[in-house]
C-alpha cells in the first residue's frame, strides 16, 4: 500500500516533514510556530466516575528524544499549522495518512497534545491519538484519556474515558466527552476539587464530589454546569439537584450560596439561604432570607463594590417583630410592641489621590436588643464616623464627625455625644531649633448632646524634642511643650460626675512643660544569650493648671500603667493635664536566648507638690508617691506566650491591677487563658472607672488529622465589694461556646453549642446551636 518507514532514514523523513509543512502552509497561511510546553500523562483511569478516575495521572513525561524527527516549521510558518516531534514517523502515500509513534508531541498555537501514537488522516483532517494522552489548552486545563479523536486544529474532538485537570483547581472524570470551540462536555461524570490521594500517596475517597449525567465546562466564562447532579459528602449522597452550576478559578458568578442552619431559644430554628448576584468582577449583591420557626422571617442584603478610588460595603437587615427595649423583665403583651426592626452597617474608604482620602462607617439599629436577639453583634455602642484625611511625609490633617448610639439598657440616648466637627492638623519640622525636631498641632472639637452638656474646644500646641547620645552610651531626650486652650461649655449641670463638668461659659488656659528623659542601655552576654538592662530616669516640670475650669470629655478613664508611666501627660486625652513637678524612675530588662525571650519593665514616680491632685483616688497617681507598675512578657518559641501586667499599692503592696494573658500550645492544639482584676478602690461616683474581675479561657484540641474540638468561656468574678453598682455575685458565667469541627483541603463542617446566661430585653438567655458546612472552591 505504499508504506514508507523513516525510523532510520533521517534524510527521507526530513524531506517528508518539509513536504507536510509546505502543504499545511498552503492550506492555512503563514506565521511563527509556538514553542513546546511541558504537559503530564499516565495510564488511563479504571473507573470514570470513582476516586480512581479523579486521581492525578502520574509523573511528567521525559524530555523529547534528541535524535527524534522534528517536523517543526521554520520561524515564518503559519501559527495555525500543526508542528510536532516524534520518535518515528510513517507516511502512507496511498491513503495520505501520517502516523507518528513514540513520545509524540503536537503543537498548534497554545494547544498542545502528547500521546504514544498519533494518526493523521490528511484527507479528512481527523487526528486520532492513543496511549497516555494529554491535551493542554491555552488556559492550562489538561485533559487525559485513552483514545481521543480530534480535528486537525487540535481544538475539537471526542474523548473516551476522560479526565480533565483544571488549571484553577479541580478534576472532572467521565466515561466519554467531547470538546468543541474550547468548551468541554462530558457524560456520566464526577467533579471534585479535593485531593484523591492521602499523605502516604494511597488512594482515598474525596471529602465531597458532584456526580452528574452531564457536565459542561466553559473555560471562557470559568463556569461548570451540571445536569442531573448530586453532591456526595464522605461517600453519602445528598438531595438531588436537577440543575446546578458554579464558577471555578476564583471568579464569581450569580447563584445560590451555601445555606446556614442554627437554633436558639429566642427565635427557634433558623434557616438562611443566600443568593449571590454578580454584576461585575468588582460589584456584587447578596440577598439572604432568614426563616425562623418562632418569629417572622428577616431579610438581609449586602452590597459590595471595589473601584479605582476605593471600596465600600453596605449590609442591611429588616424584619417585623415584637420588641422590648429598656426592659429587664420577660416580654409580655403589656410591655412590648410589634414594629419594624432593622440594622444598617456601612463602611467604605476612597483614596482620592496620594495624599487625600475619605472614609466612613455608619452603624444604626432600630432598637437596643435587635443585634443580640438575632445574633448579629454583641456591641453595646454603635459608633458612626465620617473622616477626611490628608497625609504626607511631614504633615497630617484630619476632619472628623462622630455620632454614638447606645444599646445599653437604662442608658440615656440623649446623653450620647455628637462630635461635629473634630479637626486635627499636625506639622513636623525635622530641622528645628538647635538641631531638634519641632511638632506643631492645631485642634478643634465641638460636642453636642440632645439631652446633656455641650462643649467646644480649640487649642494650638508646640513641642520640641532633642535627642542626644553621650560618649558613655546614655540616650538623653530634652522636651519643651507649650499649648494654649480655649473652651466653652453649657448645660454643665446635666453631667452627673462633678469633676467632668467644668464651669459654664468661655475659659482660656495655658499649658507648659519641660522634660528630661535619660536611658542607659547596658548590653552584654548572659546565660548563653544576650542581656540588656536599661535604667531610666525622667524629670517633668509643669506649672499649676486650671484643670477643673474646663469640661472633661476625652480624659476620663485615667489609670497608671506601664505604657503611660513615662508619658509627658498621663491623662489619656487633651482635656486634663498633669501639672506640678515629678520624678519617674524605672528599669527595662530584656533577655534573648535561642527560642526564648524575656521582656520586662517596672517603675514608679514621685511628685514634688503636696497639694491635692486632680487625679482620682484609686488611679495610682493621687498621692505624692505613685503606685508601682510593671509588665513582663515571656515567649518560648511558638509554644508559650505569657504577658503579665500589674500595679502594686505604694503603701501596702496590695495588687491593684492584675492582668494575665497566656497562650500555650501549637497552632492546632492550644489553650488561651486570661484573668483581669482591677481592685483600685475607685469611688462609685466615677462612672468611667469601675473595678471588675473576670476570667476567660479558650482552647482547641486536634483530636485527629482533620478533626478538632474547641471551646471558650467568660466568667464575671466581680462582686459588690469591688463594684457597688454590679449585680454579679462573684461567680457569674456570662457565656460559653463548645464546638467540634472537621476541616481538610476542600471541606469545612462544624457543630457549635453556645450558652448565654443573661437576658437582655427580648434577647433571652439560653442555648444556641449552629451547624456550619462549607464546600471550599465551590460557589453555586
Provide an overview of this structure.
This protein has 780 residues and is mainly beta. The chain has four helices and 43 strands. It is elongated and about 115 Å long.
Give the key terms.
single chain, 780 residues, mainly beta, 26-stranded antiparallel barrel, 14-stranded antiparallel β-sheet, 4 helices, elongated
Radius of gyration (Å): 37 Å
* Unreliable spans: 1-49, 56-77, 325-331
User: Helical element count?
Assistant: 4
Terminal Cα separation, in Å? Answer: 57 Å
Strand segment count: 43
Q: Nutshell version of this structure?
A:
4% of the residues lie in helices and 55% in strands.
What is the secondary structure topology, with strand pairs?
Blueprint: E1 3-5, H1 10-28, H2 51-54, E2 69-70, E3 83-86, E4 88-92, E5 97-108, E6 111-121, E7 126-136, E8 142-151, E9 157-165, E10 171-180, E11 183-192, E12 208-218, E13 223-233, E14 236-247, E15 255-256, E16 260-264, E17 268-272, E18 275-280, E19 283-292, E20 298-306, E21 310-323, E22 337-351, E23 356-365, H3 370-373, E24 381-391, E25 395-406, E26 418-429, E27 437-448, E28 454-469, E29 475-490, H4 498-501, E30 505-519, E31 522-526, E32 529-542, E33 580-593, E34 596-607, E35 628-636, E36 640-648, E37 655-665, E38 670-678, E39 692-702, E40 707-716, E41 732-743, E42 747-756, E43 766-775
Antiparallel strand pairs: 1-4, 2-3, 3-5, 4-5, 5-6, 6-7, 7-8, 8-9, 9-10, 10-11, 11-12, 12-13, 13-14, 15-18, 16-17, 16-43, 17-19, 18-19, 19-20, 20-21, 21-22, 22-23, 23-24, 24-25, 25-26, 26-27, 27-28, 28-29, 29-30, 30-32, 31-32, 32-33, 33-34, 34-35, 35-36, 36-37, 37-38, 38-39, 39-40, 40-41, ...
Amino acid at each position: 500500500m505504499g508504506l514508507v518507514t523513516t525510523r532510520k532514514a533521517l534524510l527521507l523523513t526530513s524531506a517528508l516533514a518539509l513536504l507536510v509543512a509546505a502543504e499545511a502552509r498552503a492550506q492555512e497561511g503563514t506565521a511563527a510556530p509556538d514553542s513546546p510546553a511541558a504537559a503530564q500523562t499516565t495510564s488511563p483511569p479504571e473507573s470514570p466516575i470513582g476516586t480512581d478516575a479523579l486521581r492525578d495521572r502520574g509523573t511528567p513525561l521525559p524530555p523529547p528524544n534528541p535524535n527524534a524527527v522534528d517536523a517543526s516549521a521554520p520561524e515564518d510558518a503559519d501559527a495555525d499549522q500543526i508542528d510536532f516531534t516524534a520518535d518515528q514517523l510513517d507516511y502512507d502515500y496511498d491513503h495520505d495518512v501520517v502516523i507518528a509513534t513514540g513520545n509524540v508531541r503536537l503543537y498548534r498555537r497554545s494547544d498542545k497534545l502528547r500521546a504514544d501514537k498519533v494518526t493523521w488522516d490528511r484527507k479528512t483532517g481527523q487526528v486520532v491519538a492513543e496511549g497516555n494522552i494529554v491535551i493542554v489548552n491555552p488556559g492550562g486545563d489538561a485533559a487525559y484519556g485513552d483514545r481521543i479523536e480530534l480535528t486537525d486544529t487540535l481544538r475539537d474532538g471526542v474523548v473516551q474515558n476522560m479526565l480533565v485537570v483544571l488549571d484553577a483547581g479541580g478534576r472532572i472524570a467521565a466515561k466519554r466527552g467531547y470538546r468543541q470551540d474550547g468548551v468541554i462536555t462530558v457524560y456520566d461524570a464526577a467533579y471534585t476539587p479535593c485531593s484523591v490521594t492521602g499523605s502516604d500517596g494511597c488512594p482515598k475517597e474525596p471529602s465531597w464530589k458532584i456526580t452528574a449525567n452531564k457536565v459542561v465546562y466553559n473555560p471562557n466564562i470559568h463556569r461548570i454546569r451540571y445536569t442531573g447532579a448530586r453532591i456526595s459528602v464522605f461517600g453519602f449522597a445528598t438531595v438531588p439537584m436537577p440543575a446546578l452550576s458554579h464558577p471555578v478559578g476564583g471568579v464569581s458568578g450569580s447563584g445560590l450560596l451555601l445555606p446556614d442552619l442554627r437554633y436558639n431559644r429566642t427565635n427557634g430554628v433558623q434557616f438562611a439561604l443566600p443568593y449571590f448576584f454578580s454584576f461585575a468582577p468588582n460589584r456584587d449583591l447578596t440577598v439572604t432570607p432568614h426563616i425562623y420557626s418562632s418569629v417572622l422571617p428577616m431579610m438581609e442584603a449586602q452590597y459590595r463594590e471595589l473601584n479605582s478610588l476605593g471600596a465600600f460595603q453596605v449590609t442591611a437587615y429588616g424584619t417585623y417583630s415584637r420588641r422590648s427595649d429598656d426592659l429587664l423583665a420577660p416580654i409580655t403583651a403589656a410591655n412590648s410592641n410589634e414594629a419594624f426592626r432593622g440594622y444598617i452597617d456601612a463602611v467604605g474608604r476612597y483614596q482620592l489621590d496620594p495624599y487625600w482620602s475619605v472614609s466612613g462607617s455608619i452603624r444604626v439599629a432600630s432598637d437596643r436588643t435587635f443585634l443580640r436577639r438575632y445574633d448579629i453583634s454583641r456591641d453595646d455602642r454603635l459608633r458612626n464616623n465620617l473622616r477626611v484625611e490628608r497625609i504626607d511625609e511631614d504633615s497630617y490633617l484630619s476632619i472628623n464627625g462622630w455620632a454614638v448610639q447606645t444599646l445599653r439598657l437604662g442608658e440615656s440616648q440623649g446623653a450620647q455625644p455628637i462630635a461635629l466637627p473634630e479637626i486635627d492638623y499636625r506639622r513636623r519640622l525635622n530641622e528645628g531649633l538647635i538641631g531638634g525636631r519641632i511638632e506643631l498641632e492645631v485642634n478643634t472639637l465641638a460636642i453636642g448632646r440632645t439631652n446633656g452638656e455641650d462643649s467646644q474646644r480649640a487649642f494650638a500646641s508646640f513641642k520640641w524634642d532633642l535627642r542626644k547620645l553621650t560618649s558613655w552610651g546614655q540616650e538623653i531626650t530634652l522636651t519643651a511643650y507649650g499649648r494654649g486652650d480655649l473652651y466653652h461649655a453649657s448645660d454643665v449641670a446635666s453631667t452627673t460626675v462633678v469633676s467632668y463638668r467644668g464651669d459654664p461659659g468661655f475659659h482660656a488656659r495655658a499649658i507648659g512643660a519641660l522634660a528630661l528623659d535619660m536611658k542607659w542601655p547596658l548590653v552584654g552576654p548572659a546565660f548563653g544569650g544576650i542581656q540588656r538592662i536599661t535604667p531610666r530616669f525622667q524629670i517633668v516640670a509643669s506649672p499649676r493648671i486650671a484643670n477643673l475650669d474646663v469640661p472633661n470629655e476625652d480624659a476620663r478613664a485615667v489609670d497608671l500603667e506601664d505604657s503611660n508611666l513615662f508619658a509627658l501627660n498621663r491623662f489619656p486625652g487633651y482635656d486634663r493635664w498633669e501639672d506640678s513637678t515629678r520624678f519617674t524612675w524605672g528599669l527595662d530588662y530584656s533577655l534573648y536566648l535561642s527560642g526564648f525571650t524575656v521582656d520586662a519593665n517596672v517603675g514608679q514616680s514621685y511628685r514634688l507638690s503636696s497639694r491635692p491632685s486632680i487625679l482620682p483616688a484609686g488611679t495610682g497617681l493621687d498621692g505624692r508617691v505613685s503606685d508601682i507598675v510593671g509588665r513582663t512578657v515571656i515567649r518560648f518559641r511558638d509554644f508559650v506566650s505569657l504577658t503579665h501586667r500589674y500595679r502594686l499599692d505604694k503603701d501596702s503592696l496590695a495588687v491593684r491591677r492584675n492582668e494575665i494573658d497566656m497562650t500555650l500550645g501549637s497552632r492546632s492544639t492550644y489553650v488561651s487563658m486570661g484573668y483581669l482584676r482591677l481592685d483600685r478602690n475607685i469611688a462609685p461616683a466615677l462612672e468611667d472607672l469601675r473595678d471588675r474581675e473576670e476570667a476567660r479561657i479558650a482552647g482547641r484540641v486536634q483530636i485527629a488529622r482533620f478533626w478538632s474540638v474547641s471551646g471558650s468561656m467568660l466568667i464575671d468574678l466581680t462582686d459588690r465589694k469591688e463594684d457597688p453598682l454590679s449585680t454579679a455575685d462573684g461567680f457569674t458565667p456570662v457565656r460559653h461556646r463548645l464546638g467540634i469541627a472537621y476541616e481538610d483541603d476542600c471541606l469545612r463542617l462544624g457543630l457549635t453549642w453556645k450558652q448565654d446566661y443573661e437576658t437582655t430585653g427580648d434577647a433571652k438567655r439560653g442555648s444556641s446551636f449552629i451547624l456550619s458546612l462549607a464546600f471550599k472552591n465551590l460557589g453555586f
